[in-house]
Structures are given as C-alpha cells and as structure tokens.
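Worked example

This section walks through a single chain of length 175. The input is the sequence exactly as stored; nothing has been trimmed or padded.
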Amino acid sequence: MGVTRMICGRAAQRCREAVQSIMPETFCFQSRIIKSHQYNVSDPVNLCLNYAYGVLGGECRRAVNTVGFAFGFLHESSDYQTRQSLVYDLQEPFRWLCDVTVIEAFESGVLDLKDFYFMGDDYRYHIEIQGKRRFLELLKSKFNAGVKYKGRTWKWDTIILNKAQELARFLLEKS
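Given that input, the structure is written out below as tokens.
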C-alpha cells in the first residue's frame, strides 16, 4: 500500500505542476503545499480547488453511504478525516474533473481576482458570494454533463455511484 500511495502522491504533484504552468501568474498559484501547510487557501486557485474537492467529496460520500462501506485502501482514517476514508479513495479518479473546472473558471473569466479578498486575521483568501455562485454553477454543469460510459450517456454522479457499487460487489465477491 505504501508504494501505491507514493505513486498517487507523485501523480498529484505532477498534476499540480501542470496546473501551475498554465495558470496566469496574477492568481499567485504556487502549489498545493505552501510553507509546510498542505491544502491551505493562500491563493484564489487553492480556495477554488478546496471548494471543488468539497463538492466532489459530497458526491463520493453519498455513493459510499449508499453502498454501506466506509473503510479505505489508500487513505487511512485519522483525526483530520472522517472515519469514511473510502470517500477520499473514491475521489481520486475524479479529481481531474475539479481541476479542469477550476482552470476553466479562471481562463473563461467566470472568476477573476476581483471575486476574492484576503483576510489578514486568518491569512486566508475568501470568495465573494456572487463569484461563489458562478463557480458553483460551473461545477454543477460539469458534474451534470452527460458522458458516454458503457454505451450510454450518464452523469458523473451516476458514474461515481456505479463505481462505488462495483467496488462493493467486488469486496463481497459478487463480481
């Protein structure tokens, strides 16, 4: 399991480097790890990534709750995560959907620097309510977009649920 986590971590790092290479400098995106604090909201891009991953996490949590499994394989339960570590495992193959949406939000002008403000008291960026609404609409359109899968057109939330069900059947030795 350690090798798998290491490979996933390296793949995620390469993905972040690719995002950084195409993100305009005005948004100050450096990395997902800044000053030894992972996944902070030290810039607008990280804030939007956190928000998008939260939406994805909700979809994955719903799927995991539907099938009734909670234990993970790649992610371990810990104090900072819920006991449903499988939610984080199920997110991994779909994170790209969030990454692409964040890139599109900034490249298309759905979000601009004026949509964000910095609070010195907590050293975090925040997003104006109208910007948040526009971003959420973009996220919803991505998650509700039809995609060809198994010869049919499915929505991403249905595919996520299908993958959780396939995993449950596999674990119960029914497939």
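What to look for: The first strand starts at residue 33 and ends at 34.
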